[in-house]
Amino acid sequence: MALWMEAGSEPLTENEKADLEAISALKESAAIEFKEQGNECVKKGKKHYSEAVENYTKAIDQRALSDSETSILFSNRAHVNLLLGNYRRALTDAEEALKLGPDNVKAVYRAAKASMSLDLLSEAISYCEKGIKSDPSNEDMKKLLKQVTLKKKEKEEHEAEVSRAVVEAKACLSVFENRGVKIGKAMYRELTGLKKPVLDQSNILHWPILLLYAEAMTSDFVEDFCETDIFLFLLSAVNMFSDDSPPLPWDTNHEYTREAIELYYEANSGTPLPRSRVLQYLLEGTKGSQAETTGDEDTSLTKTPYNVKGKGPSGMVKVNERRTLHDVLKESNFVIPEIPVFYIVSKRSKFYKDFAAGKWSPPC
Question: Which sections of the protein are TPR repeats (predicted)?
């Protein structure tokens, strides 16, 4: 019988030919039945989608239908895989459908939808254009083309913003490195929120500054202090110390006057972060926060020797108000806790004696 013929051999008798024709008819009938069962499963809804895929697969495996009919089977299975969220399988099925039936517009549409879901936007646009060329009146295809085109535009704009954020952050990182500036972990973000320096077109850094009144642990915040400005300007920017300003609410003895206050920073307050961590901080809150950055080794920002916490003298260092911000920030014992923090004390206050003697330290 033809059932036992070797693969590739030709039937020799009329009976063998008849057997083969009967087997082919059975397989064709089975394929059509599986296809219809698959269609019914789709109509029944989501709970039956997996069963629909199985039926379409069984129909395809019969290898009994014409190329155009098999193209429809692959296209149908692509449709169900789209409904199931199996976008890669849907695209593969749609591509198989198009190999067998290049004019299968539904397969083109499903290939476009799967490509869009896989973020293969150029491919999706290409499929849409192919479908519209074959069927100029296909409104669904035109609508999908608009959606994909818009998504591609938004993606390109997002990528441009990410690229710009990374470039700006790396430029700032490079300036830190060249300036000998060391960045450490944040200390008072609960007071300031996420704040970062800004690099202007003249390659000058503008820093947000936190001023802490050590005696009362209250604060003032300066949004923008240029690194080339001297500290006299910084203190002038704090209106608390102008002649016509009222005293600080807690300064009942009026000890915090312009001529009485001094400015300090904490020496060796932490360990400098590696380049990758500093870059992560600079990208935080930007479109580039999730960007993959390469080529940034986990090394210190500067090769200038510095004292790490516990290995050098800690304590408060008085700031010469005639120095620039940059001159102070590049000091080897100054590790900036994301943004510069300076402490204000009054020479007239009883607190000053303990502060100057090193008996006070910032709360952890």
Answer: 71-104
